Amino acid sequence: MPGSTEDLAWLPRPTGKEEGHWDRLNSVYVRFIKMDNKKPNTLLDLAIHQLLSNETAAIHAVEKIPRELFAPLFCASFKGVHKNIVKAMVKVWPYTCLHIGTFTIREHHRELLTAMLECLPFLPGQNSGSRSPKLRILDLREYSGCKIVCPEIRTKSPACLFSCAHSEHSILKTQSQQSIASSEPEVQPSNLPMELIVNISLVSGITLWQHEFLALLLKKVEDSSGSLHLCCRNLEIDKLGDRKNILNYLDLKCLINLSVFQGSLIDVNNLLTRVGQLRRFCLSRITCRSLNGKVFRNFVSHLRCMDHLNELNLHSFVLTDHLETALRVLPTSLDFLHLTFCELSYNDFKFLAECPQANHLKLLNISSNPMYWEDCEPFYNLLHRISGTLQHLAVTQCVLTDSMVAGVIPALSHCSQLQELNLSANPVSMPMLMRLLEHLTFLMELKYLIYPIPVHCYGRWPIQESLDQQKTANVQARLK
C-alpha cells in the first residue's frame, strides 16, 4: 500500500473524458447512500425498539409473539447486546435452526454467544402456556453467510440447509435411528438430539475468552450424554502433539476446512485418518524427513481421497521435485492454490504448467519461491493456460528481474479476469515498472496492483534500512 516500506500500490482509474463520467457516477452513488441512510423506521422497527426498552416486558412477550417476529426481534436484541432477551428467545425459538452468520461479532457480543451456549440443553417450559423448545441446530459460526433461519423443509426431518451430512452422530442420522427404534419410549425433550455448529481455533495466542468458551463447549458435549453433536466445520490447530485430548472431543468427519500450523507430517497423517471430505486444506511449517519415504507416500494417499478439495495452501512445506507427486492425485476442480516457501524447482514449475489440476485456477500464489530464467517459460505457459479464469496472482519475493518480467508481460496482458496482482519485493527497475503498468492498463477487471519499490530507491537491495524515502516518494508521485 502507499507509504509502505516494502511495496507500493496502484489502483487503476479512468482518465480523460472517462474521468468526468466516473465522478458523475460517484456523486450519484454518494447521494443514493445518503438517501438510503435517511430511510424512516417502519412500524415494526419502532415496535421492536419500544419493546427492547423494557426488558421484563420483552422477555414476557417472547412467549406470545407470532413466530414471524422472532427473527427481526432477535436481530435487534443481538445487535443491541440485550443478553437476557437473547437467552429468553433462544430457549423458546420456534424454528429448527438459528444461525448468527449474518452478524459481525464484536468483543461486546461475546457474552451473548456464551449465554446462548449456556441455554443448552433446552428444557420444556414450567407451565402449560410456555412454548415448547423447537431449536435443534444452533450455528455459532461467524461470516458463514447463512440467514438467521433457513427456509423450512416440508418433511418431518429436523434438518436445515446447513445440517451436518457426514458424521455418524449428526442429527439426521441420529433422528433416523430413533425413528427405526419406534418401539422404544418417547425421547424426552431435554434429550432430543441437537447440533451445535462451530469453528474452532486451537492455536497459540488465543484469548482468555476463547479458552473459556472452548471449555464450556466441551463441558456441554460431555454433559449431554451423547445428545449434543459438536459439529466443527473449520479447525485451525498448531502443535498437534499437544492438542490430542481436545481432538478426542471432535468428530473430524464434519470438517470442511482444516489448517495445521507447525508439526510433523506423521502427526498430520494421523489427523487425516479421521478427516472426511475437505474443501480447504492448509499446511504450514510441516516437517518431513524424506519425500521418498513411507510418510510422504501416506500423505499423498490422503490427498487422493480429497475428491471435493477446492483450495490447497502449502506454506514452508519443502516439495522440491515432488510437486507432481502431491498435485496429480487431486481433483481437477481446484480454484485456489498457494505454494509459498516450497522451494519449487524447474521440474515443479514445468509440471504446474501442464497439470490438469491447474486448468481452472482463480487464485495462484507462488510467492517466496526464487525463480530463475529457465523457470520463465513454464511460468509463461501456466499464465497463458489460466488466463481466462485467473483473478488473483501473487508472485512476491521471487527474485524476478527485468528480463523475467518482460518475458511474462504478454501472458499477463491476456489474463482478462485478473483483479489483483502482487509483485512486491522483486528487483525491478523503474523503466520496467512503467512498461508493466502500460500493458496492464488494458485489463478492465484489474482493481489492485501491488508492485515492488524500484531497485534505484535502495542503497543496497533489498535491505529496508537502505531505502531512500525521497526516491520512494518520487516514484509514488510519478505513478499517481
Automatic annotation (TrEMBL):
GO terms for cellular component: cytoplasm. InterPro entries: LRR_dom_sf, LRRC14/PRAME. Keywords: Leucine-rich repeat, Repeat. It comes from the Eukaryota. Signal peptide: none annotated. The keyword Transmembrane helix does not apply. This is Melanoma antigen.
